[in-house]
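for the writeup, i need someone to sanity check this before i put it in the appendix. the sequnce is what the collaborator sent (i think, or maybe the updated version? ugh). structure was predicted straight from it, no edits. if anything looks off just tell me and ill rerun, i have time this weekend
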Amino acid sequence: MVKVEPSDVDINIPLNNKTYEYRFALVIGNEDYTQFQAGLNSEINVEFANHDADIFAKYCKQVLGVPGDNIILLKDAISTQIKREVDKISKMIKYSQGKAEIIFYYAGHGIPHEVTKEPYIVPVDIAGDNLEEGIQLNWLYKKFTEYDSKLVAVFLDACFSGGARKQGLIAARGVKVKPKENVVSGNCIVFSSSSDIQSSLSYKEKQHGIFTYYLLKKLQDSSGDTSLGELSDYLYENVALSSLKVNSKEQTPKTLVSADIEKSWRSFTFIKK
C-alpha cells in the first residue's frame, strides 16, 4: 500500500452543525486488487483509492451533514459486500417514504463489458473477464431510483474504458473501449471523473485521484454551501486544466442528469437554508 501524507484537503475540514436525518451515504474505495486475485501485478492497483474514500466519508459527516450512523464506508470491497450495501440503501430509500437523500461515492476500477459495452464497477475479487459478477452501473442506478427520493448524487472517480490511474485491468491488451452511455431517472445526478475513452488519473502531489481532490477542494472552500450546478462547472474546469498540467493527459469530467430534473438540478444544494 502507498504511504499517504496529508494534503491540504485532508486537514481543516469544515464542520457544519447541521445534520439531515434522511441523508445516507455509501462510500467505496477499491484500491488493492491483488489480495483476491493471484497473478495480478501491483501496478494494477488503484493508487490512493482507499484514502479517497476515507476522506470523502469524513466530508460526508462534517460538511454534508450525513449522520455518522447513516454512512457506510467500504474499502477493498468484494462483489457480495457492495451488492448487499446497495440493497440496504435501496431499502432505506423505500422506508423513508420520499424523504431520502442519497450520496454514493466510488473510487476504483471501472470497465466496459467486452460485448455489450455496459460499464461496470469492478469489485476487488472480480476479474476483467468475469464482469457479470461485478456491479453494472445501470443496475446500480435502478436500485437507487426504484423508490422515490429527494436526491441521488453519484460520484464516480473511475473510468469505464479499461484505463485507470496507473494501469487498467485490460490495459495490458492495449485496449480501450468507449462504454455505453447509461440513462438515469428520478432525482438522480451522476458526476463522472472522465469522458469516453479517457483514463481517470491521480494527483500524486495531493495523494488523491485528481477528480476527488477537486471535489473535496470545492466542498472545503465552500463549506458545502454550493449548488450542484456550481460544483459541476468547477469540476469540469479544474480537473480538465490540472490533468493537462499535472499528467499531460486530457481528463474531462461529465455530469449525467435525469430528464426528470433537467431544468432544476443546477440549483440543488446540500446545505439547506
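The helical segments are 49-62, 79-95, 137-144, 210-222, 228-247. Residues 170-175 have pLDDT under 50 and may be disordered.
thx in advance!!
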